[in-house]
Every structure is written in structure tokens, then in C-alpha cells.
Amino acid sequence: MSELVQSIREKYLRALENIAEAARGAGRDPAGVRLVTVTKTQSVDVVRAAIEAGIPILGENYPEEGVMKIQSLLNFSAVEWHMIGHVQSRKAQLVAENFNFLHSLDSLKLAKKLDRFCGEAARILPVLLEFNVGGEESKSGWDASDESRWSALLGDVSAVIALPNLQLRGLMTMPPLGETAEFSRPFFRKLKRLQTYLQERFPQTSLSELSMGASADYEVAVQEGATFVRIGTSIVGARQYKTEV
Ligand SMILES: *Cc1c(COP(=O)(O)O)cnc(C)c1O
Q1: What's the whole-number mean pLDDT along residues 74-78?
Q2: Is 105 helix (H, G, I), strand (E, B) or coil?
Q3: Could you give the CA distance from residue 245 to residue 65 in angstroms, rounded to a whole number?
Q4: Which atom of ligand 1 is nearest to the CA of 215?
Q5: CA–centroid distance, residue 213 to ligand 1 (Å)
Q6: Burial of 155 (0-12, 13-18, 19+ CB in 10 A)
Q7: Where in the chain are the domains?
Q8: 204 CA distance to ligand 1 middle (Å)
Q9: What homologous superfamily is domain 3-234 in, according to CATH?
Q10: What pTM value is reported for the model?
Q11: Which of 164, 163, 144 is CA-nearest to residue 154?
Q12: CA atoms of 163 and 147, how far apart (whole Å)
């Protein structure tokens, strides 16, 4: 095993241990939490090393960058590729044709486009609805900051459920950036309450997935019910910002 593979594997296993400990501490089964390793901005070599380290689920933020990696690493077909970043409508086809899961469905317009392209590609795409629970202007997702206005979300949720080629599985959020992990807790709780609210209104659709928590706050997210955590820097290191990957 190369040094890079070894180092990624150690960090990945440590994150899994931390997740298991947080789950058990909260009375949850650790098997109910899946770790998405976020490789955005990392080179194909780093992503290959992550796969060789035994990582089964990779998360990417930018459709073109993700598709380039997926196509460079096609022989690793057992890996699941999750899109976790904002998808512009004109990138819907790339996502529909290449990714296994979308965490960041943030508009009905995008949902309809994805549904059409999935239909043409004869694929079903599992999706999560992204909610902006902190109410920040800069964040994508349906604004769910004001609990007294959650009923305004029901029309779009119902419309997504009705799309035949998308399979709605649950909810996702990115809380506002805070100084400590505890800062995220009320936002994770709010997403959990929203899950309960929507599940009661759409009992025929299982909305059991909750994607929340990154390097800085994933243990808190697990305590609050996350079924997916999305961890980048603490497994694959600092992001590699540059124009090409
Ligand atoms: C980058 C990113 C992550 C991972 O963040 P880290 O702090 O590197 O763990 C998680 N979720 C989303 C949506 C991201 O864009």
C-alpha cells in the first residue's frame, strides 16, 4: 500500500470509529450512518488512492469535475458517486447520467430537468431535498428557517415525489459556519424536526435519510440523527484549489 493510500485509510477508519462512538453514545446503531468521503478539488490520483484505501462512497461538488473523475476511474465500478454540491439546471444531464445519488436537490426546476434526463437514460436517481435551515442568503436549498412557514414547502415536496424517475429518500442541509461543532446542533435538530413534519404529511414515501455533518461537526450530526455524513478535509486533507484537476 502506498503511503498516500495508507494515510487516507487511517483517517477514514478513524472517522468511522468516531461515527460509531457518537452513534452508540446516542443509542443508535452505527450501521445506520454512512460516510461519504468528499473529494472535491482533489486530483484523480488522490481519488484513486481513496478508492484503493477501501472507501466505498465518494462525494463531489462540481458536476464536470466529478464526471471527469468517474470516467477516469471507470474500472472501479463498485464505488458509489454522490453529488453533494449545487447543480445548475444546465448540468442536470451530466448528473442524471453519471451519479448514483444526489444530496443537493434544491429546486423544483432542477428536479424536473433531472427527471426528464433520467427518463431518457432509463435511470432512477435517488435524491435528497436540500433545505436552508439557517436562512442565509448565500445558501442553496429551500428556505426552511421559519418553522411557522413549513407548510409553504409541501407543494414542491409533493411535486418532487410525483416525478417518476427521481426517488425521494430524505433531507440534506449545510448549517451556517460556526466556530464550534455545537453551533451546528440546533440546525441539525431543525432538519430532523422538518423530516418528522414532512414524513407525517407524506407517509407513503420513506424520507428516512438525513445528510448532515462535515469534518467540523459530524459527531454532533450523528448524535442528532444523521444517516449520511459528508467528510472531506479530515480524510483526504486540505482542498486543492486550482483551475484544472
Ligand atoms: C466540501 C463539503 C463537505 C465536506 O467539508 P469538510 O469540511 O471538508 O469535511 C460536506 N458537504 C458539502 C456540501 C461540501 O460542499
Answers
A1: 83
A2: strand
A3: 7
A4: 9
A5: 8
A6: exposed
A7: 3-234
A8: 31
A9: Alanine racemase (3.20.20.10)
A10: 0.96
A11: 144
A12: 26
Amino acid at site 37 = T
Q: Are 102 and 87 in contact (CB under 8 A)?
A: yes
For residue 106, give the nearest of 173, 34, 176 by alpha carbon: 173
- Sequence length of the chain is 245
Closest ligand 1 atom, residue 172 Cα: 13
Atom of ligand 1 nearest to the CA of 230: 10
Give per-residue pLDDT as tens, 157-180: 999 999 999 999 999 999 999 999
> Does 242 have pLDDT greater than 70?
no
Q: How far apart are CA 118 and CA 19, in angstroms?
A: 33
CA of 219 to the centre of ligand 1 (A): 14
Closest CA to 232 of 224, 223, 241: 241
Residue-wise pLDDT for 220-229, tens only, equals 999 999 999 9
